[in-house]
Amino acid sequence: MAGDARRDPPGVQDAQPAQDVQNAQDVQNAQIRAMRREDLDEVMEIESTAYRAPWSREVFLEEMHRGWARVDVLREGAEGALLAFVNYWIVADEVHVLNVATHAAHRRRGLARRMLAHVDEVARAEGCRYLTLEVRRSNHGAIRLYRRHGYRPVGLRPRYYEDGEDAVLMALDL
User: Fold this and answer.
1) Are 156 and 168 in contact, with CB atoms under 8 Å apart?
2) Whole-number Å distance between alpha carbons of 23 and 61
3) Is 10 a residue whose pLDDT tops 50?
4) pLDDT tens by residue, 69-88
5) The domain 24-173: what is its CATH number?
6) d(CA 87, CA 61)
7) Residue 77 carries which DSSP code?
8) N or C: which end of the chain has fewer CB within 10 A?
9) Distance (Å, rounded) from C-alpha 91 to C-alpha 107?
10) Span 7-34, average pLDDT
């Protein structure tokens, strides 16, 4: 990457800070575990409302069987409602985050932050040195979330998404 990695790529800027709303009870009672086949319907419900081009059921089933891929879910209590999920790959000394999504009824309660913190813990336990992800250039809320978590923009992937929108590549050093 050319230039100063601490500077934002052209056109990437943090949106105005939003009020930090967190429902501590949701976060305290929630439990993270590996996704199971029986979680698929609830994951698909979240996926279909969170993304413009949601992944198919088959993609999630494939992810569950890849040795380098992990899909973890966050539930209310041991078997309560599925609140959020995260999909990430562990490749050599890097974790690449593919999806972080929260159920629409439970957004802005700190659940995505909890999922990101979980991935950080896994990355450290696996001896990884950094984490990466892509995010839509127009998704200022997600960019703000990732920045608050310590990610920094390190580049752009032009026309990365099916609709031609650029992706901001972000990284977090451990």
Assistant:
1) yes
2) 31
3) no
4) 999 999 998 778 999 999 99
5) 3.40.630.30
6) 12
7) B
8) N
9) 29
10) 55
